[in-house]
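hey all, quick one before standup. I had two proteins in the batch that finished overnight and I want to keep them in one place so we stop losing track of which output belongs to which input. First protein below, input sequence then structure tokens straight from the run.
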Amino acid sequence: MFKKKTIEDINLKNKKVLVRVDYNVPLDANLNITDNSRIRLSIPTINYLIENNAKIILMSHLGRPKGEIVEKYRLTPAAKELEKLIGKPVKKFDEIVSEEISNYINDEMKHGEIVMLENVRFNPGETKNNLDFAKSLASLADIYVDDAFGASHRAHSSTAGVAQFLPAVAGFLLKREVEVLTSILEDPQEPFLAILGGAKVADKIMVIQKFLSKVNSIIVGGGMSYTFLKSKGYEIGKSIHADDPAEFENQIKFAKESIDAAVKNKVNFIIPVDVVVAKMDEAGNITDKKTVLADSIPADYEGFDMGEKTLALYDAEIAKAKTIFWNGPVGFFENKDFENGTRRVAIAVSNQKVVTVAGGGDTLAAIKKFDLSDKFYHISSGGGASMELLEGKELPGVSVLLDL
């Protein structure tokens, strides 16, 4: 159960409402949006505010401009995309806060209309949660709505600071994200399976520790799996691992401890039994590719994908599960020569008529690549936020909202 107030628990009629959305969308070289998912996800909340005759003031970040005005990070493309999707004009300002903006909102803007402020990260105070900047944002409105789950793990001026100056509630997207992710930890249908991939062990340490007391099975794949293979004393060749020797040793120690803890907790902990390895030339072209047993990776080869025996183990475990959480591709799926493992996992999970939850930018990119977006129970819009929530951390952008 979501324990914070939402837009349905507060009077919004004829109010000025400041809404934090997550329009940190991918852009191509011509500044065209290549995936509008995050904008589409904000529309139910915006439509509800329109229905309640509110003045809607949208704010978001885009990229990492580091407190400076960077032309390629302006939110103009997002405003134009929202106009197309919602069928209403969106007045985009090229500043974040100004007298002109305040006067427009108070004197010219009609109820039910939408304005969008410029990228909040153009202000150096945003990422420092500067309260003067937060207060200036809050001065534009009567109520604050947080619907930016993807930024809710950041204690920034536009996510946490503004809540000190305005009544703060959640939008529909934020509520659903927290409800779904919390429910799979607190009351999952069993067997509960976690599939964890991606390149870095460091990104998954806390969530693995949490899952070892929550799940029935853990599948480890992708670049991080080579650290687990190394912990068993196997040669991993040139496969990805932490660059710093001391950090790598600590991660090997963690991997071994995790495998031991899984045995103790009766968690089926699945690591690769065979992998697809290759040699590459300096231009990135494959000079040789083959499948080898996980304990027999040649010293001059690099692991790029899971082998067929490993994928058969994955398939069997996925078929048994009633709740599945997936974060991280299990291979270098961006390259068609190494996409097989991630494609197989994506298809297998999407075919299960159970609670299937996926999160993380690379995972979402893979799901989109294989055209499976509509076949998951829930796809999280926030990779870092979803992982921190599952680790048991309090999200600053959620904790500041009004309690029910």
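OK second protein, same deal, sequence then tokens:
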Amino acid sequence: METWQIAVIPVLAFLCEYMDSTLGMGYGTTLTPLFMLLGFSPMQIVPVILLSELVTGISAAFFHHREGNVNFKPKSTDFAKVVERLSSLGYVESFKRGIPIHLKVALLLGVCSIAGTVVAVFVAVNVPKFWLKLYIGCLVLAMGVVILVCMNKEFKFSWRKLSILGIVASFNKGLSGGGYGPIVTCGQILSGVEGKSAVGITSLAEGLTCLVGVITYILVTKGALEWKLAPYVIIGAVLSVPLSAKSVKVMTARRLKLAIAVLTITLGTYTIYKTVTS
């Protein structure tokens, strides 16, 4: 790599990860085409993005939990208060055995990711990229429009919706390195999860999904992958995580939901545009 690339890559990773950890989306969807413009090939990019998001996803989950945006702590001291606050939303059954709803959602999405990601890696090497990218763009755009149209509507919590969305989102992630956050974050909101909690849950679930993706790519390619981008991407991305958790903490729920909807629509539109014009 040239010197200017080494200088630019961490900055791009920092900015994209800040957006991702603040709004629950945009890292892989934005970073993949940017790296392609810098001259790198998809197979140099996607595995590295998955590896970096494995690291940043776990880190972001920790910082979001610390800032109070999400609760991943089993049998926390405020357990009774949390149960009382969420009882009207149908969450009580999910607190059996002292497991917080946020942790259960993240684990469910992580389990769903196994099927979606493994299938995606095999599809990625056999299906024309045009149709795959067009599919992802249309799906992301549709999710954003639904969020925007239903801005003031409250949704009943649904494990079934989350399971389906987890499989679809992980399929997108394994396919292109992006398309996970928009589906999972918006999907959680449409399934009854609060915006701030949805961002923190997405971070943890995405980290688990990326672990599956990295392992699958290594097995499928028999270790024939290039990791030269990895150190620069990981350093830049990790540095943004504490700042993003602070940003989510101070944002109002409505403003966060609006930002998520607008960004999702933008990413979906951009993906469709780049697909049909390239």
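Flagging for whoever picks this up: The first helix runs from residue 3 to 23. The CA atoms of residues 48 and 230 lie 5 Å apart.
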